[in-house]
């Protein structure tokens, strides 16, 4: 049975006791199969390259598409067949791809694809992935295609309600966004689900935390007392061992420092280096003759090499630390096993508590460095270069600390 398949024709087409088909008289290969229930399904019939007659389902009229859409789809399929494309194989491939998307969860993609790439290309890959696992734990088993804008916006609202800072929320979403960006680039998902999600607005002019003169004095007094106590404790331990003929521990009394903490804090305050940059610092990067530290691009957050002159206190601390360090170890501040230092959180918290210094993180020593440079009249661009900021906007948060910079600008108006 042949007829031109139009909307009016289908309205008049009544089902019978048995299924039957109507072939379109206009588009070759387009046909509709009518079930006794009244269900009308469109197909496109064609001969494959091998000459075998095949048909491909276009869709159900009414619930899935209109007859006009079915006709357009049939014409598109006819064009592909004319070009020698196996449309059935193409559809099977699309079906397999859709199944793949459903099976590729966030965690699977991170473990099998993203982690190997991130480990090779990003300096803080493991920290970033760990933060994603902690923050987005409920969504790790979600297929990537199911992660959408509404889902993450709801997560963001919940985090803010829990008291998480907007800057923290933005940073966590940025980490997740980076994973999804790679999923799009590698054609694992068709589009970026967070492309329309804008970061939360934060106060970029927030006051930078730096130490007052009295706080800095208390900090170094505590560091000095800490070294003294550790040396005394070592001496008592060796006296205990000496009486029992045990092997003695290294004598600390002849050294400037009891351990790495005092020179590490001194360098953080007087060079503005990031914690990771200090942990990765090697002796080859310290030029004692020219009094300069080189932060190489491989360890810098900006991936750009920069040179930091050493102040007298920083140079003295490094010189004294070098005298008591193991010369066979390349890192300036290695861990107890000689590898990369992991963290100094416990020691740092105890030092702040003893010095009665509140609301001062390790990273704030970097703010202290930048703030005091600006307060002493150092140009902002020079501060940017010394701190390794990617752009001047980051450095501008310290601009208000410049001596009378606003008053001087207004005075120029007369």
What does this structure look like?
The protein is an alpha+beta fold and 414 residues long. The chain is 49% helix and 9% strand. The chain contains 16 helices and eight strands.
- Residue stretches low in confidence (pLDDT < 50, at least 5 long) are none
SSE pattern: EHEEEEHHHHHHHHHEEEHHHHHH
Task: State the CATH architecture of the largest domain.
Answer: Orthogonal Bundle
Taking the sheet with the most strands, its summary is: 5 strands, mixed
Shape: elongated
Topology readout:
Blueprint: E1 2-3, H1 7-12, E2 20-24, E3 30-34, E4 40-47, E5 53-60, H2 67-82, H3 87-103, H4 106-121, H5 125-135, H6 149-161, H7 166-185, H8 213-243, H9 261-271, H10 275-280, E6 286-287, E7 292-295, E8 306-309, H11 312-323, H12 345-355, H13 364-375, H14 380-387, H15 392-395, H16 405-411
Parallel strand pairs: 1-2
Antiparallel strand pairs: 2-3, 3-4, 4-5, 6-7, 7-8
Helix pairs in contact: 4-5, 5-7, 8-12, 9-11, 9-13, 13-14
